Amino acid sequence: MERKKASEFPQELLNLFDGYVHGRTSRRQFLEEAQRFAVGGVTAAALFEMLKPNYAWAIQVPADDKRIAAEYATLPSPRGNGHIKGYLVRPSHADRLPVVLVVHENRGLNPYIEDVARRLAVAGFIAFAPDGLTSVGGYPGDDEKARTLFGQVDNDRMQEDFLAAAQWLKSRPDSAGRLGAVGFCFGGDVVNRLAVRMGADLAAVVPFYGMQPNAADAARIKAPINAQYAELDTRITAGWPAFDATLSAAGVPHEGHIYKAANHGFHNDTTPRYDEASAKEAWQRTLDWFNKYLKA
Fold this sequence. Notes:
The chain is α/β, with parallel strands linked by helices. It has helices at 11-21, 27-34, 44-51, 111-122, 143-150, 155-171, 186-198, 215-218, 234-237, 240-249, 276-294, and strands at 68-77, 82-91, 97-103, 126-130, 175-184, 204-208, 225-230, 254-259.
């Protein structure tokens, strides 16, 4: 299926799909409400298919790329769900390097997130992308099933799993000692939480359209933050000014970037919400941030 652009869909329909993605409406509700946009022989079900991810589009760095070495690893998480599995990628023929935790959206460790980890490895980092769905069998290869599984995992235990993954990654013998974290949507919220909990143990954070912590928690952050937001994602982006003010008061190095006319999920190159120009600019800022704070 050819990828369509967000501009080819009514913004109200994109907002409706965002509600489905984030659990505010069911698939049935989406289909019922999307019916009014089903014109010209296109059904509501067809619109759903057009808007959902197509992971064949996500491969920027093939899994067998000779520049990298990739494997799946499992680590203990005694305060979480017992253990957590993830995707570990490093540059080939490299010694100790800075490490970056990659935290997925609210669907688990899908092919898009694995590709993001490979992109980081190509850029000279050891990346680990944990799967928050490990305790329920892991990402099932289907986003509909993943959406259901996500609701079955205790969120507090999942947060402990991500913390365990971050600590494990930083302490690996091939780690140079500086840990960064990047997350998308749900993952953006997770890395903000990690910044609150880990303090100076986290050296740099890049949340993509992640919910911001409250002022009291944000004041505990030490890690330099480069936050990426979409202009049309008003539900999340509206929280940036207060977060910005708290980080400024705390003396935390930080930047916030709001991409004009971009939707939530603009970096995810598997859906029509993908905005190529914004995604490339945000990714370059991500690499620049990690190069500055992890490799210096």
